[in-house]
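User: For a reading group we're discussing how well predicted structures match intuition. Take Pleckstrin homology domain containing A1. Before you show the prediction, I'll give you the sequence so everyone sees exactly what went in.
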Amino acid sequence: MPYVDRQNRICGFLDIEEIENSGRFLRRYFILDTEQGNLLWYMDNPQNLPKGADNVGFLKLTYISKVSDATKLRPKAEFCFVINAGMRKFYLQANDQQDLVEWISVLNNATKITVPKSGESQSAYVETPQEALGAMKQVSYKTEIIGGVPIITATQEQSEGQNGSDRGKRAQNQLPYFLSRGAQDQSFIKAGYCVKQGAVMRNWKRRYFILDENALSYYKSDLDREALRVIPLKEIQKVQECKQSELMMRDNLFEMVTNSRTFFIQADSPEDMHSWIKAVSGAIVAQRGPGRSANTIRQVRRLSSPCIERYTPFCSGESRTYVSPPNPRPLTS
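Assistant: Thanks. Here is the predicted 3D structure of Pleckstrin homology domain containing A1, as structure tokens, for the group to look at:
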């Protein structure tokens, strides 16, 4: 879902058909900057790209005449909408129906300018992002004049998309949310891409996470079969929204505390962040049984041992966690 970032811009992931009429959609991170009057798209969230990495395409909001649903025009492209800019039409795919409706709404609102009546302020009014939402590579560029409208896009590599050998590149660029786009294994509770902080270098890398009834695993991409790490649910003490998100300057950040370390993970949207927190918390509850949190289990063990002093767990000041009733089921794309 589109969300407002710390710079008051509307952001989110979409798939875009960068080469007109190619039928090939690539995953991109979009930023709708109403103050600068631009719609920009990047290979990934700029926070996760090398410093100074430029956008791979942008469009002036003044060039956009209309944004509308295009599911009937492109029946094979699910949740598709179109941006009309002069003689060029940009086709994009949202993640679901709600995402489609919200992006169409915010884009149309961003391009709508209300002309003031006589006697009023002469400055045009444009809705703020909150109002609109209802509160590594170096590439070359080309500029095309289409119907009198300058369109700036990144040129595609010649080898990309010409044969089946680019499957890995394509999947990595598309950054799919669900495993069903990249693999056939459906035995999981939740799966999708997030960005995690490394333990040693403290750098941020995009990883593909899979949550099942026993563990949370992450992979280099959705095409890999061997996990980089498997975190058993029994080792996870709590999952919650990160208190240090302001310090780290990261949106949609949550933390997962285990016996050995604390994992800092960034989701692509606030909804995705809360979904991960609820999914992992629910899986933990389902594994341990209702009402048996990590503190409760430790307390039972201590009270059941005669040689250990009685222990009362510290309850005040604990951070809130999200718990949902266990209902593990595969996600659908």
